[in-house]
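Example record

The entry below shows one chain as it appears in the dataset: sequence first, then structure tokens.
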Amino acid sequence: FGIVPIRRDSFLSAAWDDTIKLWTVDRPASLRTFKEHTYCVYSAAPWNPRHADVFASASASGDCTVRIWDVREPGSTMIIPAHEFEILSLDWNKYDDCVVIATGSVDKSIRIWDVRNYRVPVAALNGHGYAVRKVRFSPHRGSLMASCSYDMTVCLWDYMVEDSLVGRYDHHTEFAVGVDMSVFVEGLLASTGWDELVYVWQHGTDPRAP
């Protein structure tokens, strides 16, 4: 599941030591450490689908920013004060020239940002009852995205329409902590949770069906 990274030889790690590190598969030590966040870095989104050197990161309470980075630059190139509470997840949109990013927060909301004009979000999606643990854009439709939450649900959204919530699934019995969408089969989703289960299902069907 998920888009194959456009930088196949490297990856990023985000940590509670407030840093992001850049690694390659053939070296035991990191190539570079990115340190500007002032609190835990919960998520790093590599790489921008159009720009192989650009990534984004999201941080915890006391920072609550999204930072855009270019590995060719000495520091972050953009700081977005995205939420008032911890940001647990973010993802690049594979469409719209790859300038749109989604964030999921402890404040129970998802916000959509255009990095060309980030003073206000493009959309704010509300419907989860607890912290949003993961957000993921569809690889097939630019306005479609999935999320999962500590409220044990997986939601499907179309942020370009007024009634943005287009699907809700409550198959997990503990916190839902991971969700993704297949790049090969449109509408095929997967999720995992603290109930130690992984579900794979087609949108519109019951994830628990045999």
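Notes for this example: The chain has a mean pLDDT of 93. The CA atoms of residues 39 and 62 lie 7 Å apart.
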